[in-house]
Amino acid sequence: MLNLSREVLALREGDWNKRIDVRDFVTLNVTPYYGDASFLAGATERTKQLWQICIAAMKEERERNGCRAIDTETISGITSHGPGYINKELEVIMGLQTDELLKRAMKPFGGIRVVEGAVAEKGQQVTQRVKEIFDYTKDHNNAVFAAYDEEIRNYRSQGILTGLPDNYARGRIIGDYRRLALYGIDRLIEAKEEDKRLVDGEMTEHKIRLREEITDQIIALKDIRKMGSMYGLDLSRPAQNAREAVQWVYMAYLAAVKEQDGAAMSLGNVSSFLDVYIERDLAEGFITEEEAQEFIDQFVMKLRMVRHLRPEAYDEIFGGDPTWVTEAIGGQFADGRTKVTKTSFRFLQTLYNLGPSPEPNLTVLWSQDLPEGFKEFCAQVSIDTSSIQYENDDLMRLVRGSDDYGIACCVSYQELGKRIQFFGARVNLPKTLLMALNEGREENAGAKLLENIPSLEGEYLNYEEVMTNFKKSMVEVARVYSKTMNIIHYMHDKYYYEKAQLAFVDSDPGIDMAYGIAGISIIADSLSAIKYGKVKAIRNEKGLTVDFKVEGDYPKFGNDDERVDSIAREITKFFSEELAKHKCYKNAFSTLSLLTITSNVMYGKKTGATPDGRKAGEAFAPGANPMHGRDEHGAIASLNSVAKLDYRDAQDGISNTFSIVPKSLGSDREDQTDNLVGLLDAYFRLNGHHLNVNVLNRETLMDAYEHPENYPQLTIRVSGYAVNFIRLSKAHQLEVIARTFHERM
Amino acid sequence: MIKDGLLVAQKVEQLNSEASNRLRVHSIETFGTHDGPGIRMVVFVQGCQFRCLYCANPDTMDVKGGHFLEIEELVERAIKQRSYFGKKGGVTVSGGEPLLQRSILKKLFNRLHEEGVNTVLDSNGRLIDQQAKDLLEVTDLLMLDVKHFNNEWHKKLTGLSNVNTFKVAEHRESTGKPMWLRYVLVPGWSDQEEHLHELGNHFKDYKTIERVEILPYHQLGVHKWEALGMEYKLKDVSPPDAQKVEKTASIFMSYFKDVRVN
């Protein structure tokens, strides 16, 4: 039994007292909130002063080419860096990744060469000592390439499989960081020890691995306790009040981002958990609303200051230096109550108290049944800041099963503490189509990647022939993609295991293998052009397609036209089912996303002309969006097309980025808010999965492009996350400006 | 035919054939948020007898322009968007002048009601006969555009009289069904304070007027006039400044409880 403090005893008891079960604790003790935003408090003086220090530091960071400082001497780990402060006197929530604000640390176990390169790009050098360590050990990157075969290497170098986490940390795993606050280190170690004892009998590979993993997790937990003591915190016991609960959760997260630099490291779904402690302290009169808000503001400030050391090439794929500290807010309990609490509001309020920001990546879990006051506040925050995204809570609960989940990376459901996921980047599907049209050859260099793809002889492309070849190609690509993922994740477990995060997850969790597709709208439009128009392939002397001549009009994805929307749906289903045929490492469950992040620009650059009339090098549309400017029948038709994609075929998420001019939402603030709520209700009622909402004028972005210095905090939603606009490359900025803005004349 | 820079007067009877199931349409907007409550599908019909000098859609005037759409096709489109309409939204028919196709619109509105879709008519009140009354009967909200209170100014501004507009308002009031007034504010043309007060006085006791909307004049339609070979006579008129809009709103507010700037 837990040794509970007096305060904790005042809480309703249940299963959570007997075993590690945060969901049970939240369900029993939460106070759903049905009111409006009028109770919220502004930032305290301390918070304002702290934030000014952060703003100045971020300015310096930009001036130093996006990196304020690097520690080139230390391998980052849970206890590698002593306590760091922004300003100790002003901080109510403590903790930095290194000893100095915005100083980046090296996490070389993903790949030492990438770290060396990143440091060199900033004109510095990794110290000899650190380099020498890797003479005696192996990193993830080396190990993966030791196992890759020639086929995988070719698919990778030809850009069919892209952005693979084979030379950097895979990320996407969410620790249930609430566990530290609820149970404290000692109880968590006890539970892990018990789990380990139960793994006995015949020693299969699975069990051996498990025993080693649990041992690593226990080591991590001990390290986290040590890290806490550096800040004078006794993490061995549960948090006893609101401030401690926030601090404990942050310490658990901090350990994760000290040890790992995964592409995306979400926070989970902590707001309503923290609300239990805050409500209790408010009721007892221990704290005021101002103080409650101060805890959240300062916690969020810390999350905004998380940094990883990245090479420049990384920025090409994931523009804007993102960390994806995704926090899921709201949603409903399976029992019909809302998960919205006052602290859900307090998290959104940080966008006013500290100004707009891409991080943490605030994600509202939208249900038709959310309280009206919360819906309205969300809409208002979207209109004011363009900083939040929305996901369909009703749909995810129904299809995926749990009401206690976070969003991994950008858009992916992940049950907290029970499941994890293996990040799979994505396949470039338009390049796959081009292989189908070029006898299995890559369209730029002509390298043969697929056998037995018949050449297409006729002057005009024939739909049946193209489809036959395309399906053959997808079957092969799925096969190669699957084996690549198995190798990557086997090696990541072995050489860069996320012990700090997995210490807060059940010992043998369920796993999703998160595959991805880029370019679905190009595929739909290309096949539609071939089916309903006439498409002539223009070939060079090597017989490779260099351009396509489209004759006649054809239905385009994004106009609520079933003729083409059904193609997008069928191809997604086909590819998803192909992937699911392959066995996954650790028996992971195969899922698929239609998501590009900002890599749609880079994919476009590397992809030849496509049969929809898109020229070589032109950017893809982001995520599952219709191609730029082709959704000609207005906002609703565009949304309807994307909503028709079936979430069951893409359970890792279907990302849609929606940009609208403020005036188009309505003539006054009240109408704009109402109409945005109406739009979200409708999109999600039609089973749309995800929506990024930007409420912006194109002119604002053009002005920010010209005068970045005037827009230090301008935040926009891209594909599944938010970025600080001025930190995107100029190419990315132009692509964002070129997107369809729904406006009315 | 264009005379003195304007499209000449046209016969309009053929637009209102009782046997027809086709509506002469200029265009459709799927995400209308400025023409009635909530999110709406806005059908801009073709054909108008007014020749408003500031018209932002002069290409909707010609009764022979546009294209035909079957009523059922319009209903089908509305159904596809119905989720977005929510509790307040629905379909707005604007123009052009919808009353010119009143008998066909009545069929459309009836069908929309069968599908549970709210109906709004945005009209200048050009005519009032039994068919118009029948259409108004199935119109959930009438948005009546009063171009000017003073008939002389009204004629200068639109080429025609405002007598019927007031008759339409009177009829609407007699039915007890809701109505909004819309007023385009054109500096130097429709901003005379005395006439604004007259308008307020005239309508202040109407119980069916739920809202008055001020639509500040803008020049976004100018290029269309040039493309049509017509002359835009208000080239030198600038949109009203915030102060002017504010002043007009405050005058209206002394007569009506809900005044908005759209």
Q: What would your notes on this structure say?
A:
The complex is a heterodimer of chains A (745) and B (262). In chain A, helix 15 (342-353) runs parallel beside helix 16 (372-385), helix 18 packs across helix 19 (463-495) and helix 27 runs antiparallel to helix 28. Chain A starts with 5 loop residues before the first helix and ends with a strand. Chain A is globular. In chain A, strands 3, 9, 10, 11, 14 and 15 form a six-stranded mixed beta sheet that branches. A six-stranded mixed beta sheet of chain A has the order 4-5-6-17-16-20. A two-stranded parallel sheet of chain A has the order 1-2. Chain A has 745 residues and is an alpha/beta fold. Chain A folds into two domains: 6-137 and 168-417, Alpha-Beta Barrel (Anaerobic Ribonucleotide-triphosphate Reductase Large Chain); 149-167 and 426-506 and 516-574 and 594-646, no CATH class. Chain A has 28 helices and 20 strands. With 262 residues, chain B is α/β, with parallel strands linked by helices. Chain B has a single domain (21-261), classed as Alpha-Beta Barrel (TIM Barrel). Chain B is 33% helix and 23% strand. In chain B, the strands form two sheets. Chain B has a nine-stranded mixed beta sheet, covered by helices on one side. In chain B, strand 3 and strand 4 form a beta hairpin. In chain B, helix 1 crosses helix 2 and helix 2 (102-114) packs parallel to helix 3. The longest helix of chain B has 15 residues, at 71-85. The radius of gyration of chain B is 18 Å and the shape is globular. Chain A binds chain B through residues 560, 633-637, 640, 664-668, 671-672, 674-675, 678-679, 681-683, 685-686, 742, 744-745, and chain B through 29-34, 38-39, 80-81, 83-86, 88-89, 220, 260-262.
